TrEMBL record:
Species of the source: Streptomyces pratensis (strain ATCC 33331 / IAF-45CD)
Domain Beta-lactamase class A catalytic residue range list: 156-338
GO molecular function terms listed in the Swiss-Prot or TrEMBL record: beta-lactamase activity
Pfam families: Beta-lactamase2 (PF13354), ORF_12_N (PF18042)
Biological process terms in GO annotation: beta-lactam antibiotic catabolic process; response to antibiotic
Residues covered by the ORF 12 gene product N-terminal domain: 20-111
Protein's name according to its UniProt entry: Serine hydrolase
Length: 432
């Protein structure tokens, strides 16, 4: 597949990639081979591997992009990390420069995201001072919280500005999941009920449900799975429409948010996109309005979205166009959801919450992992609830915000730091 001279690390990475017969492994192996085949494939040869929207984003043909990537080789695989529907392959070029090939599968098993970029290096973490040193960056505000819970008692292992409300992007879907779990428990919603995709409820990626045709019907269970495991924005908006805004706002209170008014009215992703990057007058009106005025504004803009993904640019979290939660708020709703998963006799809540751990995790050390990430321009956050074999729970929350999106990046760094903390032994006090 790929020339792998030399190191044991390269041999192990090659063996891991070659030996992964899952759909993710097969697609990743094929994608890596694109960079080393004798000739770049034609776009006609690519269509069976990618979702149509991916190739449509490359009007000059994706083969042209591949040829640019191939020019950086020949490559050696030095690391392979598969996690649920995502994978990362570290490649080393002839000069020793390392790059990361990242891939995300669509729910259909086709490639939705394929990107080659410089490797993002995350420093080792042996103590909390190492975490602080890594996250302390000019122009970036951050917060962090690490807790241990056993026998109903919560111990704070580390906290940095954990009471400060921060924009969190898609972590708002945790409250939607809580409201849905309550509705199912009460019998007002069933997992096999269906939601219907309509133009007024179609949002922008992440996810793939926005590409379903008008009138498509999807079960509540599948929609909730996509909302959490794939952070599907249209799925979240469909769940919110099913439950009603009032029910989600009650879930915010019941989930222990320290200042529920920050999430009233509770915005859908569609509404954030439309106000944040639509007509400029909408942003000014949102900032000037009180809660009642904001609710009237939301009623007025209901309808098909006018904003496209290419319209997203300047950060808008400073205008209150995001979902603001402190690290403690995130930890509380994570814990409440974990309890929901334990109580739900159908197993659906647990299956949905634990479908995607966010980073490679030692399953023997952490048999239960609940994860959620969130991002918007200038916003990045990742949170984990990890439970050890003895039932002791640990929560890790990392949050970043900046006025300049370039300072935040695509999340690989913050996600990697979370992985470093989880793998360090700091949670259980065994760090070397």
């Amino acid at each position: 597949m790929i020339d792998l001279p030399g190191s044991d690390a390269s041999a192990r990475a090659r063996a891991a990639l070659d030996g992964d017969d899952t759909p993710l492994g097969s697609r990743t192996r094929w994608a890596a081979e694109l960079l080393t085949a004798p000739e770049a494939p034609r776009d006609d040869d690519l269509s069976e591997h990618f979702v149509p929207v991916f190739l449509a984003r490359h009007p000059q043909g994706f083969a042209a992009t591949l040829e640019q990537w191939r020019g950086l080789g020949p490559f050696t695989v030095t690391e392979y990390q598969p996690v649920a529907h995502k994978s990362w392959v570290t490649l080393e070029g002839p000069s020793g420069t390392r790059s990361t090939l990242s891939l995300t599968l669509d729910s259909t098993g086709l490639i939705r995201v394929l990107h080659l970029g410089p490797e993002v290096v995350t420093p080792a973490v042996h103590g909390w001072d190492d975490l602080e040193a890594a996250l302390e960056q000019p122009g970036v505000t951050w917060s962090a919280l690490v807790t241990r819970e056993e026998g109903g008692t919560t111990e704070t292992l580390y906290a940095r500005e954990a009471d400060r409300p921060m924009p969190n992007g898609s972590s708002y879907k945790l409250y939607l999941m809580r409201a849905l779990a309550d509705a199912v428990a009460s019998g007002s919603v069933r997992w096999d009920d269906e939601v219907t995709v309509t133009p007024a409820l179609r949002s922008l990626p992440t996810g793939d449900m926005q590409e379903l045709p008008d009138g498509a019907r999807v079960s509540v269970r599948e929609t909730a799975y996509k909302m959490i495991a794939m952070s599907d924005n249209t799925a979240a908006d469909l769940i919110q429409d099913l439950l009603g805004r009032d029910a989600v706002e009650r879930a915010v209170v019941e989930g222990g948010h320290s200042d529920p008014a920050l999430l009233r009215p509770f915005l859908s992703s569609h509404e954030v996109f439309e106000i944040g990057w639509g007509a400029p007058g909408l942003r000014a009106e949102w900032v000037a309005a009180d809660e009642d005025g904001r609710r009237r504004l939301l009623d007025r803009i209901a309808g098909p979205m006018t904003v496209r993904g290419s319209d997203l640019g300047a950060t808008v979290h400073q205008l209150g166009l995001d979902w603001h939660m402190s690290a403690w708020d995130v930890a509380r709703v994570l814990g409440a959801l974990a309890d929901d998963g334990t109580r739900d006799t159908s197993g659906a809540v647990e299956d949905i919450l634990t479908a995607y751990p966010g980073v490679p995790v030692d399953a023997a050390r952490w048999p239960r992992v609940v994860f959620k990430g969130g991002s918007c321009p200038g916003v990045m956050m990742f949170c984990w609830l990890l439970q050890d074999p003895d039932g002791v729970r640990y929560t890790l929350v990392l949050q970043q915000r900046a006025d300049d999106q370039k300072l935040i990046g695509d999340g690989q760094f913050l996600r990697g730091m979370g992985g470093r903390v989880i793998g360090s032994g700091l949670l259980s006090g065994t760090s070397r």
